[in-house]
Specification:
The structure is a single chain. By secondary structure, the chain is α/β, with parallel strands linked by helices. 28% of the residues lie in helices and 25% in strands. The protein has 4 helices and 8 strands, in the order βαββαβββααββ. It has helices at residues 21-28, 66-74, 107-124, 131-141; strands at 12-16, 37-41, 54-58, 85-91, 97-98, 103-104, 145-151, 158-165. Strands 3-4-8-7 form a 4-stranded mixed beta sheet, covered by helices on one side. A hairpin with a 4-residue loop joins β5 and β6. The longest helix has 18 residues, at 107-124.
Length: 167
Amino acid sequence: MILAENYPKLDLVVQDLASAQSAFDENINSTLYASRVKFQIHNFFEPQVLPADVFLLKSVLHDWSDKYVLQIVRNLLDVLKPGNHLVVFDFVMPEDYDEETDSMTPLLVRKLVASMDMQMFVGCNSKERKVKDWNDVIKRADDRFELKEVHVPRGSPLGLLDFVFQG
């Protein structure tokens, strides 16, 4: 875990649509870090103009079809430098077979995940993605991304995928 007090010069910028600013202000102003976290209006369907060492897309991509994921990721390319990170914090579908435990993912879990996948398809023309699917779509956006780390806590539907831009 990165604690802001360990990085005195670390500033964070949260980008979202203008409609999210009031909720951001209400939540951040009561924290110790209010002076170091800033809000900036940005639509991820527009090219990114703010360079950063790390871009974190939390719960952004899973409800978009590949066509739009490609567009969102490609909109970062103009400001990326070699070594920059794109961290995807989103739903990660489990594999049917868990090599770590040498067992099948329980049927109840597979059914639940399949229903979530169907909801994404019907409601958003999207799909839930396994690690390989995430890697494939990000690499299709630009093959200079390399998946360096994957963190999916056992039993969690959410995971972190750390892609490093090779430039």
